[in-house]
Design a protein that fits this description.
By secondary structure, the chain is of the alpha+beta class. The chain has one domain. 19% of the residues lie in helices and 39% in strands. The chain is built from one helix and seven strands; from the N terminus they run H-E-E-E-E-E-E-E. The strands form two sheets. It has a five-stranded antiparallel beta sheet, with no helix packed on it. The model has no long low-confidence stretch (mean pLDDT 76).
C-alpha cells in the first residue's frame, strides 16, 4: 500500500515538473526559416499588406508575423483619413500635416 502511494505521488510530481518545463522555441522543421547574422539567429517574419475597398471606404492593414501593426481607413468623399490602433480600437486623425 505504501509503495503504491509513493509510486503515484512520484509520478504526479514528475508530471508537474514536465508540465512546467519550457517548450522548445523552434521545431526542427522551422530551422530552414532561420537566418544567421553573426552568432545570433533571427527568425524571418512574414509581412502582409492587406488592401480592402468597397463603395464607401478604403482600408489598408499592415501585419507582421500575423500581428496587426497598423490600420489606415480612407473614407471616400470629403471625409478625412484616420488610423485605428490595433490593440485598443481607438481612432486618431492627423489634424495638421505638412
Amino acid at each position: 500500500m505504501r509503495f503504491a502511494l509513493f509510486l503515484s505521488l512520484s509520478l504526479f510530481a514528475i508530471g508537474i515538473c514536465r508540465a512546467e518545463s519550457p517548450a522548445p522555441l523552434l521545431a526542427p522543421a522551422d530551422s530552414k526559416n532561420l537566418q544567421e547574422t553573426g552568432s545570433a539567429k533571427v527568425i524571418e517574419q512574414r509581412t502582409e499588406r492587406i488592401h480592402v475597398e468597397d463603395a464607401s471606404t478604403r482600408i489598408d492593414e499592415l501585419r507582421v508575423g500575423g500581428e496587426t501593426k497598423s490600420i489606415k481607413v480612407q473614407p471616400k468623399g470629403d471625409l478625412p483619413a484616420y488610423e485605428v490602433a490595433p490593440a485598443s480600437g481607438e481612432r486618431s486623425w492627423k489634424v495638421l500635416s505638412f
